[in-house]
Amino acid sequence: MFETLEVGKRITADDYGSLQKRLRDRLLQAQLDLAGRDYPVIIVVAGLDGAGKGSLVQQLNEWMDPRWIETNTFWEHSDEEESRPYFWRFWRSLPARGQIGIFLGSWYTRPAQAAVNDEMAPEEFALYCKQIESFERLLTDDGALVIKLWLHISQESQRARLQDDSPHRKSSPRSSDHPYEMRGVYQRTLEVSEQLILATDSSHSPWQLLEAEDRYYRDITAAELILDAMLYRASREPAGSRAHIPATETITGRQPTVLDSVDLSLSIDRDDYDSQLEHYQAQLRDLGWQAYQQKRSVVAVFEGWDAAGKGSAIRRVTRAIDPRLFRLVQFAAPTDEERAHHYLWRFWRQLQRDGRCTFYDRSWYGRVLVERVEEFATPAEWQRAYSEINRFEHQLVDHGVIVLKFWIHISKNEQEKRFNSRKKEPHKQHKLTEDDWRNREKWHEYELAVDQMVSHTSTRHAPWTLVAGNHKPYARIQILQTFCKTISEALQV
Amino acid sequence: MFETLEVGKRITADDYGSLQKRLRDRLLQAQLDLAGRDYPVIIVVAGLDGAGKGSLVQQLNEWMDPRWIETNTFWEHSDEEESRPYFWRFWRSLPARGQIGIFLGSWYTRPAQAAVNDEMAPEEFALYCKQIESFERLLTDDGALVIKLWLHISQESQRARLQDDSPHRKSSPRSSDHPYEMRGVYQRTLEVSEQLILATDSSHSPWQLLEAEDRYYRDITAAELILDAMLYRASREPAGSRAHIPATETITGRQPTVLDSVDLSLSIDRDDYDSQLEHYQAQLRDLGWQAYQQKRSVVAVFEGWDAAGKGSAIRRVTRAIDPRLFRLVQFAAPTDEERAHHYLWRFWRQLQRDGRCTFYDRSWYGRVLVERVEEFATPAEWQRAYSEINRFEHQLVDHGVIVLKFWIHISKNEQEKRFNSRKKEPHKQHKLTEDDWRNREKWHEYELAVDQMVSHTSTRHAPWTLVAGNHKPYARIQILQTFCKTISEALQV
């Protein structure tokens, strides 16, 4: 999830100057328009400590007309609040229709903090998340526009920022020893944050995850997201579920995606490859039987660019496993029968029983990749799919299934080379279609889709592995190695 | 909740004959129409053991064309099912678009049964319910029409029916010693059922609670509800949340409501009244202070017919409590500021702190009473309100608040008498307005609204008390007595 937020998205100071001028007018205009409308805008600013939540809110107040914005913080627990149900404090701070309420510290703060400090049982935490989801649904059912921003910075940046002892920082309650703070427990905080975000990333009030390393990028993008959500909401009455991911790139310029963090120069020499292939395949053979004995299933998903080497990589895996123990299923366009059911149905039905492996050559992620880019699915459909997929995989994991997900990445140049070589070799020509060239034109759209897919669905229990695929042997070893490591850890052998 | 389902709704054998003939054609027509549509219909038949779920399903299969219906039972756990995630069995049984799938035994069965047998921790059960809600939302988001019927019978009927040892019954797996059965634990089953229904009574797939005592009424009404939902869904594309409660009364004729179970002949004589009034007021005075010391709040809601004697009953309560400890809030039409917020906001903000009482003279129930009947709220809004209100009250109860809810009932004749006497007495004339006479014309609509309100919101933790109000002194004593009993039980004094 958070790997997409440490890729170096940024804006130069010059660009910032000119962008902010334009932004400001449009924000004021949107605010003016909102004043005449019959719904409130509720902005939740959350995220890691030191990511600049306070500065962002200050900036928003500066850019917009503060007369129609109320900023709410919940640093101090007043006894007025403590002696009423927890949500009372939020209810009484809700903005009126036509107004904007910014929540810096919100209904997310207490459960996040309690979970990080291990003061809340996992079931209680899970119920809390559900309660939040219901609360937000109640607001959006009533017409409210709920915008939730999550600000992320890397562990190193956090450390550096929190050690900054400038006078301004010292006097801010934010960096005091306040119980809302979550410093010094970076990894645990990420764990809890992931759970919190997954459980509340609904189509009626989706999370927007933001890389907050560069303050120019952070502020401009946050404001653009707010503006975009407001314009979108204003354009459709009556309110429905919001299914729209704004293309902030049109404003901020092209930004790196999580795929840029994959080192495509990685390779492995022939001898190493042979010995490692043998080693991991032997290990995987054993693990396959051990999983069978422990009645643990394996579900592995293979996705990647055309010509990324999916098929040959899968073969290196399946060769290692007894054919009685696995099933490889391929997915192209759905059949009539499949089309007559929910899109997840065709994947559910292929699921093998306990102790068996199911390998999916293309998978349910088609919903948020090809169906999104080719507009086979509406924005509402593919955006909703993130949480549907997370729930589906959660059920698998809950049942004891070991879930692996691979995206095999190659560079655009490498793809061209492979396409051309396919053209030349007669026995490979059938693998190259018109579609492949067409998909290639949408390379960047796919990059964005992959970035968001990883952002929304790479979870602790079912993480994505981004495979460096330019050198095929390297990719195969990376995949086999990931298989062995994940399965042996899960089986505790 | 279930008190509305033991009021004697029934249809005569003659009526049944003529009704079923008409029904049958319309059901077939709806089915034919469905075949060409791109969504499935999923019917869940649940309810108490012995309520006739199996017979109903058989009847539905007889009335409709069985070629487009699949009935699914989940009596036996196959090992195919056990070795995959729990929901796999339901996924693979889901009907295709254009078809009807009836689930007799469904995703509700296992958690209900586990909870009744105390094999599942409360938190786990709560999470399960949430998982069900998400599953159903996923189906309805995809366009599916989900119809959920809950069949209720009284404890006496259940006992009688389950003791029936006719050969047909003996060989039915339903009445075997099967683990899905929930016999012999009637009260515990009701408790669990209430939780299950409350947690999954959503606007996208609402529960329809059915009195199943009389099989004619049960079958006709169930079929009408299904038909109505199908016609309604067919009439609006694309699918949205279903917000529509069918008026089956237009078919089955006027049926008794829960208000008919209130014995309005009850009265109390003058001497008794005086001594009991004194007794309970003294007790309540003490309890007020004890609640203060224990930091427990009391929230009491007063609703009732015009001229039911709400005001004078409230005064008998407030006189008993130290004015420093309570606040009485009255609600008429909302102010501008209130209108600019969610309808629950104005009730939240009046909430007094721990140890204090808040008395609401009219309340959030206006949403499902006057706002429903007068069409100030859309069907979507007031139907959604049931679960919103339940969640709100649940938060109160969770925080330790003691919740009391009174509906003061009088007969239509008694109301007329009181209106006329108001007309005559100068100091009471101001209490009688044009609205009062107008509301009176909608008496039966209000009766239906009260019946459904009690059905959806009378919960174990915040039950409705239906007060027999024809004799004012009796009503006052009933209210005071309920106050004393509820508070002393909650404080354990």
Give a written overview of the molecule.
The structure is a homodimer of 493-residue chains. The first copy, chain A, is of the alpha/beta class and 493 residues long. The first copy, chain A, has two domains: 2-256, Rossmann fold, CATH 3.40.50.300; 260-491, Rossmann fold (3-Layer(aba) Sandwich), CATH 3.40.50.300. Helices cover 50% and strands 12% of the residues of chain A. Chain A is built from 21 helices and ten strands. In chain A, the strands form two sheets. Chain A has a five-stranded parallel sheet, with helices on both faces. In chain A, helix 1 runs parallel beside helix 10. The longest helix of chain A is centred in the middle third of the chain and has 24 residues, at 270-293. Chain A is globular and about 70 Å long. Chain A starts with 12 loop residues before the first helix and ends with a helix. Chains A and B meet through helix 6 and helix 17 of A and helix 6 and helix 17 of B.
